[in-house]
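Section 3.1 - Work completed
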Amino acid sequence: MKVLANDGISKSGILALEKGGFEVITTKVAQEQVANFVNENNISVVLVRSATKVRKDIIDACPGLKIIGRGGVGMDNIDVDYAKSKGIHVINTPASSSESVAELVFAHLFSGVRFLHDSNRNMPLEGDTNFEGLKKAYANGIELRGKTLGVVGIGRIGQATAKMALGLGMKVIAADSFIPQVDIKVAFFDGQSITTTIVSQSLESLFKEADFITLHVPAQDGYIIGEKELAIMKDGVGIVNCARGGVIDEVALVKALDSGKVLFAGLDVFENEPTPEMTILMNHKISLTPHIGAATGEAQDRIGTELASQIISILG
């Protein structure tokens, strides 16, 4: 049987699938050509990440399709319910990229509180002529230790982020309409661990209480953070979004950054991917990455091997 990994798959995933008797094709097929390619090449499994969409049109056009797989968590680029109604298995890897995304959240948090994103822009331009001026400009850093991190969505990635925050000595609060409370186990290198319980609270109380806010939610119909929500947050709050574009009103965010209400933002995802607004890209108070939350070698290895094991168990 043939597997089309249209958005790529790790070497370890390819090897596991080949060992299970599958032929893996990693040719990048244009979105409008996916259905034809699947049919012409007798593809049984299509694997995607966030780039390729598997909607009703492709599902209807490909009667031989047995599995649609998403490398990662979010399934908003797949018509999941419709695929299942047609007898197609839909799989993903919700646990594989949690640590990588959580580490990127803290990369943005550390960048924000110490102005690294702006310093790295300006040091090459002015470091030799205005060293003392830049030193003064970036002298008002903030420690994360002892501050309150508000985690919106305390699923797997939210929990991984909470663990890192607890390890840093932060207070962690959470809002999640599906998870009323969760036990967070922080494990250390020597086998010891501590466990603490986080009880979910209202979004409004989280926005009022948190020094920093990180979002870990699926794609939404509307904004989770807009003008009204920004208004009730603490002055000087930091906001990180490594979840999905469209959950923050970017116009309202820029306005809040310009007024000083929000100290900084860290964005890995954007309302208009893959062409983010220039007002976002050029804002010196925003730390920017191009949707790379799960893009570590370790996460991609875990994603590839986990997809392979699921495919083999279904079709093997």
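Second construct:
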Amino acid sequence: MDLVTVRTLRTPSHRDDLALAPGEQPLAGGTWLYSEEQPGTTGLVDLTGLGWPDVERTPDGLRLAATCTIAALLRLDPEPAWRAWPLVEQCANALLASFKVWNAATVGGNVATALPAGAITALLVTLDATAVVWTPDGGERSLPVADLVTGVRTTALGAGEVIRAFDLPESALTSSTGFRRVSLSPHGRTGTLVTARWDAAGFALVVTGGTPRPLVLRWDAVPTAAEVDTVLAAHDDWYDDPHGSPAWRRAVSRRFAAELVAEAEGSEAAAADGVAR
């Protein structure tokens, strides 16, 4: 779609040139930005000229640049110990986007757009990722991705703030994960997406797609299905749009949660059996 109100396009090469003026929006892949009208947007600031490396190994895990494309993320050769890595491809495929979109759409753009069906948000929240945010005063702050997305198309980003990167801890990358997704049609938008991550430190369940913002539930150990179901049955903030009613989203999320608990119990039992032998 033509953005008829846009009058300027800047491509800064240094952070000093990044400061967003009134009416300017950051541009990375542009797959959402160009998909609908952007009232009030008079300028675009292309972040790709800043030259951020797509992926960097860190002492504590992995850093993904906000400008890293989904295709670049999928091309990464994971470490053998990263048991959680299959979740990357599962969440990428949940977007139902072609490889052509993967080559343009960015990790940061999917999160910053803050749509319930943003499966990269689900991926990062499940892996306990932290967002590194550049502030207009030249500083930076960090917050969990689970707290960055606050609702449908709303985030905790302040005026002039830009997502620089996402840090994924090694402990999450080496955990086991589970994935369940449903939509009303074979190629429809996600109705609900339920993911889980578990290791010796505990069990985390994440619901996206069916909720306006990520719902994160944690236990010190794999809970019973009844314990999880009690929490989800009491949760009263479910998304409502043409892709699914709140009642349906709650029902399938509860079923998926029970399946993921059973999957975690099974993997733990198998691991214990292997140790015993």
